[in-house]
Design the sequence.
């Protein structure tokens, strides 16, 4: 029986979809069978980030309404043998198209077939959020070092505590800019973790390549040398129970030649 | 055995109602007793008489009390002082307990959460920005407050908030509201701070050393020296 994990944040734009795609890909690379569920109905992106948008035939609303069996709606990612599937969201309706019971039924149907079912939650705390958390065994809260994102994360942790899951929520701090954190312009990792009072699952450094690779439909974890990729891989390893030390946040030091280059730019 | 017994004590007359008899019997015997009393030879019409009614291990309902009161009303110089019983209803007991206890709260109140407590609160947890702790009693705070607290809810301005509220967003006492964030520098970063409503109905703050002047009633209750 697999584990269903919802990836949520409250605030939009902190990187829920990117985190879902990358953790999912990292787990698949480690040989685990993973299904990603996109619940951002009406504004689906997960398929684009994974480069699977051209292959969608049916979506989660079709499955919930009983139009097609679940297996027909799953989109297989050929890069990972038989390990990686996506259940896409519907694009022509909105978040109220699904009920909590319908989503729970689909999650329960997926869990025995996969090691991990990752649920990509839409932003906000309305019906879409309720749908996403109902079937999950645990939650990953994504935040960035911004105060507004931390506030919303706090709100979401509060909502999740009302209906406790099997496991307490865990935190991923995304889009860390080492220089700003080093200068004290934003809250640092310890401050955020201490403030929210939940366990830290991992940190991810902000990197331009995260955006450029996802524009080609390739999650950043496929690049083994990237610092953001290392963050996601570490998270995946921790999910599998390994003890991995937190990566060091090193501010980029500009060398003599880079400075010189910038002058002549 | 009689269900209703009249007894004279140093403190006046008592009518003791047997708690094992039925209320109908009591009603009849009660009226009989009063009749017997006014027809007695020692009875003086000009002298007023009043009774305490003791009900033992029976708590009379409001309507039962009303029935007995109606009976007594028929006799113009008799009155009932009050009812007392050795027992009380669960509702009364809970109310009494809630009014007088100190509730210990040790939890994180997160953004958007709103915790309501009855009576005095000893707060050991943490209130995040956007979180709210509301009580009708006093608040003794040893935890971190970065959100909103409200004491004396909804309108009691005699309640106090004691603790470090340096980082709070707002403190509300009764109907008065103070935006602490605007007075950040004035309110000391000290756990011995008292916030209260002064005679001008505005929230002000002082040190715990002055609590005797701020609220003598509260001071005597906590047994300070």
Sequence:
């Amino acid at each position: 029986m697999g584990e269903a994990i919802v990836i949520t944040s409250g605030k939009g734009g902190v990187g829920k979809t990117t985190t879902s795609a990358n953790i999912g890909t990292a787990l698949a690379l480690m040989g685990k069978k993973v299904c990603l569920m996109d619940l951002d109905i009406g504004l689906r992106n997960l398929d684009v980030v994974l480069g699977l948008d051209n292959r969608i035939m049916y979506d989660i609303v079709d499955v919930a309404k009983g139009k097609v069996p679940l297996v027909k709606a799953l989109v297989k990612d050929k890069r990972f043998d038989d390990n990686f599937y996506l259940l896409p969201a519907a694009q022509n309706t909105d978040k109220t198209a699904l009920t909590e019971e319908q989503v729970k039924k689909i999650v329960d149907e997926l869990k025995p077939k996969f090691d991990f079912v990752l649920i990509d939650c839409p932003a906000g705390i309305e019906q879409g959020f309720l749908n996403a958390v109902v079937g999950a065994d645990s939650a990953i809260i994504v935040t960035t070092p911004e105060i507004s994102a931390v506030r919303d994360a706090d709100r979401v942790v509060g909502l999740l505590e009302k209906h406790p899951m099997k496991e307490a929520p865990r935190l991923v701090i995304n889009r860390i800019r080492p220089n700003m954190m080093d200068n004290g312009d934003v809250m640092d990792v310890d401050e955020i973790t201490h403030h929210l009072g939940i366990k830290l699952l991992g940190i991810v450094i902000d990197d331009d390549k995260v955006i450029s690779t996802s524009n080609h439909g390739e999650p950043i974890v496929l690049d083994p040398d990237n610092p953001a990729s290392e963050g996601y891989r570490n998270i995946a390893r921790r999910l599998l129970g390994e003890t991995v030390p937190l990566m060091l946040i090193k501010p980029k030091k500009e060398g003599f030649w880079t400075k010189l280059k910038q002058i002549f730019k | 055995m009689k269900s209703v017994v009249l007894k004279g004590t140093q403190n006046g007359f008592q009518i003791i109602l047997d708690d094992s008899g039925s209320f109908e019997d009591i009603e009849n015997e009660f009226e009989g007793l009063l009749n017997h009393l006014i027809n007695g030879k020692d009875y003086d019409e000009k002298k007023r008489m009043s009774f305490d009614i003791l009900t033992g291990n029976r708590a009379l309902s409001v309507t039962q009390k009303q029935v007995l009161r109606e009976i007594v009303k028929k006799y113009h110089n008799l009155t009932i002082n009050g009812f007392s019983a050795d027992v009380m209803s669960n509702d009364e007991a809970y109310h009494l307990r809630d009014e007088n206890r100190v509730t210990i709260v040790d939890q994180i109140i997160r953004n958007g959460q709103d915790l309501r407590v009855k009576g005095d609160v000893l707060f050991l947890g943490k209130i995040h920005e956007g979180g709210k702790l509301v009580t009708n009693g006093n608040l003794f705070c040893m935890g971190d407050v970065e959100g909103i607290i409200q004491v004396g809810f909804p309108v009691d301005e005699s309640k106090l908030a004691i603790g470090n509220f340096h980082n709070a967003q707002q403190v509300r006492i009764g109907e008065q509201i103070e935006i602490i964030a605007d007075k950040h520098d004035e309110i000391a970063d000290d756990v011995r701070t008292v916030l209260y409503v002064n005679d001008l109905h505005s929230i002000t703050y002082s040190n715990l050393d002055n609590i005797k002047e701020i609220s003598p009633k509260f001071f005597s209750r906590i047994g300070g020296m």
